[in-house]
Amino acid sequence: MKDFVVKKSISIHAPAEVVWDALTNPEKTKKYFFNCRVLSDWQVGSPIIFEGRIFLLIPIKLEGVITEVKPNKLLRYKLFSEVGDRGGSSTVTDELEYINGETIVHITDDVGVGEGVEERYERSVKGWDKILWGLKDFVEQNKFSLA
Known about the structure:
The chain is an alpha+beta fold. 29% of the residues lie in helices and 45% in strands.
């Protein structure tokens, strides 16, 4: 049985606190995460919501729950989605590792099992590439702005 887990990493020339802020600040996520704001109080058990418009036209709202938080180091959450008539869930882990002036962001997205898993996996592979490169560009251009 195939394992449908996306694993991606990217190196960002910025402190972990700045990268963390870009991952958790809704006005900043909107700049690189398919125009979506991420909303949460970042506490274990709290909801996490991604909402916005893909390509400025298609409304999107993904909801989930925070399962683990270590500020500036680790964020894990489970997302539940309805795609057409297929529902699904994924568990996303963002790990930050600060080494020699750069923060390495490791993303793991376990897209689950069941109907539509291959399609969710392929979308996730492509999506995380765009998100991570967008995050890198955004942070490196605005890295001294924690506000």
